[in-house]
């Protein structure tokens, strides 16, 4: 009986303490999120549409009401930073890596330049990364190839250099990768064959060389393969279309491929282009 009463008293107290601790933690980190966003704003050098000047300020309401920012319903941490096509110029601060609840970042179609901060590799919850159509340079930091929750990964149409990391094999949730229209070179790592959910592979108009790993053609989820305008060599496998029931578009033009087009091409039943 005593134990039960103690339980009745202490259990709610314990829960309350946990709740307070959770609240404190979320508030601490909300401050971290705010600081990260203010740093992001500080790194923006031109905002001709005045997207951020009006309500991206610490004196205004919660950061969750800032244009382009979304927060989680329960924990009120920043889950999305989406400001595509906003004519923003600037670079990306390392502090973005502190937005530890971020699921989506979409800054495509702006004029961001400079390097991708390696700290983005800390965003372990990130599913959607779209920084395409900017002026980012340097190579893709190693850590970014380890963001295992990534589903959509778009860094194409930038001035990026470097190679595709073998760690790409750990991005098993990837559905779309777009890193074309860059200067990314080297060979396509065969680890890409691990990506069993991949629907679109776009590394066109880059500087790829070497052979196309044949296991790419075993990824049956693929709907589009775009590797045109590179320096890929070798011969296409005879069983090219044995495992590609969903392939709609295949563009390997403007490379150094030789040999004949495999007759198995007729087994890609959905091929349109
Ligand atoms: C912030 O700006 C956007 C766009 O101008 C507006 O829709 C939104 O209501 C503003 N939010 C606050 C809290 O002022
Ligand atoms: C990013 O925003 C652009 C413009 O609205 C949109 O076309 C694109 O699909 C978005 N990217 C992602 C990954 O949702
Ligand atoms: C915003 O960008 C678009 C497309 O790049 C351009 O046509 C437009 O003039 C820009 N607007 C401002 C205010 O800079
Ligand atoms: C956030 O990130 C920056 C740069 O990566 C770092 O200097 C800072 O201490 C981090 N932590 C907080 C709580 O803002
Ligand atoms: C990357 O861009 C920045 C800013 O435009 C520039 O200062 C830097 O020299 C560039 N780095 C490389 C390696 O091109
Ligand atoms: C390839 O990209 C360059 C810019 O990097 C562009 O000028 C050229 O038109 C592109 N070529 C194709 C075939 O898309
Ligand atoms: C593709 O899959 C088939 C059947 O599962 C297998 O026999 C073949 O070795 C695979 N090819 C590659 C290059 O992984
Ligand atoms: C393409 O690869 C060949 C060797 O396969 C090499 O001789 C040539 O210089 C490369 N071209 C470019 C533009 O990288
Ligand atoms: C393709 O080119 C390579 C050299 O790059 C050569 O070894 C091979 O025999 C060629 N294959 C065909 C079918 O022409
Ligand atoms: C990214 C970040 O700042 N995370 C912190 C969230 O709050 C807890 C508790 O205060 C810290 O341990 C984390 O480092």
Describe this structure in words.
It is found in: Membrane. It comes from Rubroshorea leprosula. Its main location: membrane. 15% of the residues lie in helices and 22% in strands. By secondary structure, the protein is an alpha/beta fold. It has one domain: Ribonuclease Inhibitor (Leucine-rich repeat, LRR (right-handed beta-alpha superhelix), Alpha-Beta Horseshoe). The strands form 3 sheets. The protein has a 9-stranded mixed sheet with strand order 2-3-5-7-9-11-13-15-17, with no helix packed on it. The model has no long low-confidence stretch (mean pLDDT 91). One 2-acetamido-2-deoxy-beta-D-glucopyranose binds at residues 214-215, 218, 243.
State the helix count.
1
Instruction: Give a short account of the largest sheet.
Output: 9 strands, mixed
What ions, cofactors and ligands are bound? Answer: 2-acetamido-2-deoxy-beta-D-glucopyranose
Describe the oligomeric state of these chains in a short phrase.
Answer: single chain
Percent strand: 15-25%
In the CATH scheme, the class would be: Alpha Beta
Mean pLDDT across the residues is: 91
Question: CATH superfamily membership, which one?
Answer: Ribonuclease Inhibitor
Radius of gyration using CA atoms only: 23 Å
Indicate the percent of residues in helices.
10-25%
Low-confidence stretches: none
Helix/strand/pairing category: alpha/beta
Known CATH architecture: Alpha-Beta Horseshoe
What is CATH's topology name? Leucine-rich repeat, LRR (right-handed beta-alpha superhelix)
The largest sheet has its strands arranged as 2-3-5-7-9-11-13-15-17
Shape: elongated
* Tally of strands: 18
- Overall number of domains: 1
Distance between the termini: 76 Å
Element-level helix/strand string:
HEEEEEEEEEEEEEEEEEE
